[in-house]
Known about the structure:
By secondary structure, the chain is an all-alpha fold. The protein has helices at residues 2-33, 36-56, 60-74, 82-103, 105-112, 117-121, 126-145, 149-172, 178-186, 190-203, 214-251, 256-270, 274-292, 296-322, 325-332, 339-355, 359-364, 370-394, 396-422, 429-446, 454-475, 480-493.
Amino acid sequence: MGIVRKQSIYSSIFIYIGFGIGALNVLLLFPRFFTPEEFGLTRLLLDIALLYATFSTFGSLPITLKFFPFYNAYLPPKKNDLSFLTITLCIIGCLLFIGFSIIFKDFIIRKYHARSPLFTAHYNLLYPLTISITIFYLLESYLWTLKKTITTNIAKELILRISVTVAIALYFLKIIDIEQFFTLFSLSYLPSILLLLWSIKKSNHFKIVFSISSVTKRLWRKMFSFGFFIFSGNVLNVLSRIIDTIIIASQSANGLADAAIFIIPTYIVTLMDVPLRSITAISIPVISEAWKEKNKAKILMLYQKTSLNLLLIGLLIFGITYLSADNMVSFLGPTYTPVKEIMLILGIAKILDLGAGLNSQILLLSKYWKVDFITNMLFIVCAIPLNYFLIKSNGVIGAAYANLIALSFFNMIRFVYIWKLFKMQPFTQKTFLLLVLSAISFILVYCIPTISNIYIDSIVRSVLFVSLFSFCIVKFKISEDISEMLITVKNKYFSKR
């Protein structure tokens, strides 16, 4: 756990700085300087581009993550053709994306024109945004295999959000107009791409070899089969995560304006996901190597420790944010009244997801990786009709309930599969003790009388909850990793010199 803990901590620091900048964008700048429709457009463009970009990678990312240890073990860098293969797949994927988006452009515009005309007017911005995200994904996978996850997280979570903030500032200062802002938004991944290219060049590990290696000749059938199924599963997984915005924009009464409302609680709940992003990035190569070595004990230890730590941090963040939900609605205005209810529903769904731990990565990198595809397919089969009917009947609140139902079903299926296949499950006695202690801490702070000043009220509730929650965690020794981290910080900064 040493490298996982160290890199995940550093990555989380940069990610949270990025999320702070993102919160400035989402909670203050966008609502203040843009109409709800313009704000909603940025989210819809990004979500659709993420789906198209996942399609455009054409299976190259899982192939890189799964088979890099074999190429690295059996080939010198000068004969390693894995990078050439993955680049070729991405080029093919991008060409297919362009053809698909042109062929179905009229159909998509018809579906969105009535409720989201601003999107149909800016449909072509999907091309630069999608292609730049595809390039970013490819470079990110290379750096993940080299265990340089801090750089990828800086690029993805920090630099990207700074680029958006700069574009907003230029628009606010009237240096650019609204159309130029949307163009800059579609190019917001470029600074991050440049950082990743610089990091890869500096590592001296990236070589493009045009000749087909002996490893490729021996493994290409397995690589093709693995890449196809996992690629299909990844497309379904991304679709399931963004389907709410896509359906809200096309089916809800106010289209992009309702999508803008949904952005606020979604972004806040996403804060709970930050540790998962950083831990996943560094855990993938560790799990891949453990499966190669058939070290199930190492995987089980990682499974249970990451589940506990992810759940702990997720509960802490949810408690802090939801205790201030009423104050947030007062700040944003009556238009955003649904935020509190959506936040509660999405928060519960995310807590369930975090508690499930690295179930996806364990399945994906094992010999039963096809289960990942099957469960993703079940998820999307469940999520699409749930979102469609619940959004049509209940608006944006329906999207939150659809998310909770589908995510609960999804994680339950994976839990059962991993238990039956490997006799592994992520929970320990400390998991249930953590849930009890967090519930007690939350209820005690929630019952405190409200202070009239929303800013002071939020600060008081946050400080009290963090203090009480942290005391319980340390007192009952819930997490070994968190305790070690606190001891390290204490010895480094507070010990007598």
